[in-house]
Amino acid sequence: MSDNIRIKGTKKEEYKEILTGEAMDFILKLHDNFNGRRLELLQKRILRQKEIDAGKLPDFPEETR
Questions:
Q1: Phi-psi region of 56 (alpha: psi -120 to 50; beta: other; left: phi over 0)
Q2: Which residues have C-beta within 8 Å of that of residue 2, sequence separation ≥ 6?
Q3: Cα 47 from chain centroid?
Q4: ∠ Cα 3 9 15 (to 5°)
Q5: d(Cα 28, Cα 5) in Å, to the nearest integer?
Q6: Is the overall model pTM greater than 0.85, yes or no?
Q7: Most exposed residue of 20, 29, 45, 54, measured as fewest CB within 10 angstroms of its CB?
């Protein structure tokens, strides 16, 4: 199992059947591939929420009207 992954919370013995070394390596690859985009989208969500909080209502993009 990768040493680069930390699991928070209670670890039960039966988790070893699911969280195999191969599964954890797969999770690490997913993280490496998509974390940058995930963080970007989270930042956009924060900015969009600030717009909504300031009174800007959600609307459809002009090209989809």
A1: beta
A2: 21, 24, 25, 28
A3: 17
A4: 70
A5: 7
A6: no
A7: 54
